[in-house]
Amino acid sequence: MTTSSPVSVEGLLLTADRLLEGEFAEAITTGRHRGACLALRTALETCVDRVLEAATPGLSRTTGRAKLLLLHSVAPAETARRAKALWAQLSLGCHYHLYELGPTYDQVRVWRAQVDDLVRELIH
Fold first, then answer.
1. 70 in Cβ contact with 59 (< 8 Å)
2. Segment 34-61, tens digit of pLDDT
3. Measured distance CA(75)–CA(64) in Å, rounded
4. What is the pTM of this model?
5. Do the beta carbons of residue 123 and residue 52 sit within 8 Å?
6. Which residues of 7-22 are buried (b: 16+ CB within 10 A; e: fewer)?
7. Read out DSSP for the chain?
8. What gap in Å lies between CA 96 and CA 30, rounded to an integer?
9. Does residue 86 register a pLDDT over 80?
10. Contact 114/90 with Cβ under 8 angstroms?
11. Region 74-102: what's the mean pLDDT?
12. Residue 107's closest CA among 36, 42, 45, 55?
C-alpha cells in the first residue's frame, strides 16, 4: 500500500491551467475543459476542507454539500454563497451529458479566476 501525499490546491490550479492551455494535446478540447473543471472543483473542495478542519476539527467524514453549508459559520455569508454557487457550476461542467456541448474555454477561464479569488479569501 502506498501513502498518498496531501492534495495541493496550487497543484490542482496548475493542472487546470495546463489543461486549458492544451498541454495535453492528445485529449479532445471538451475533455480538457471538463478535466480542468474537475481540478478546479477539487481545489475548491480542498480549500473548504482545510478552512473547516482548522475551525472545527473532525469534519472529514462530512459530505461536500454539508461542508459548503457549514462554510457559512466560518466565512462571510457572501463568500460561502459564492463558493456553493461556483461548486455547483463546476460540478455541471465536469460531468458529461450527451445533450450538452460542455463548458467553453471562456467559461472555464472565468471559473478558474473565481476559484483563485475564493481560495485567497478563504485562506487569508
1. yes
2. 999 999 999 999 999 999 999 988 877 7
3. 16
4. 0.89
5. no
6. eebeebbebbeebbee
7. -PPPPPPPHHHHHHHHHHHHTTSSTTS-HHHHHHHHHHHHHHHHHHHHHHHHHHHSTT-TTS-HHHHHHHGGGTS-HHHHHHHHHHHHHHHHHHS--TTS----HHHHHHHHHHHHHHHHHHH-
8. 9
9. yes
10. no
11. 92
12. 36
- Calpha distance 70→9 (Å, rounded): 20
The answer to whether the CB of 39 falls within 8 A of the CB of 19 is yes
By the 10 Å C-beta count (0-12 exposed, 13-18 middle, 19+ buried), 60 is classed as exposed
Which triple of cell numbers denotes residue 70?
Answer: 457549514
Start-to-end Cα distance in the chain: 35
How far apart, in whole angstroms, are the C-alpha atoms of residue 67 and residue 61? 10
Cell of 108: 472555464
Q: What digits encode the pLDDT tens for the residues 2-29? A: 334 467 999 999 999 999 998 777 778 8
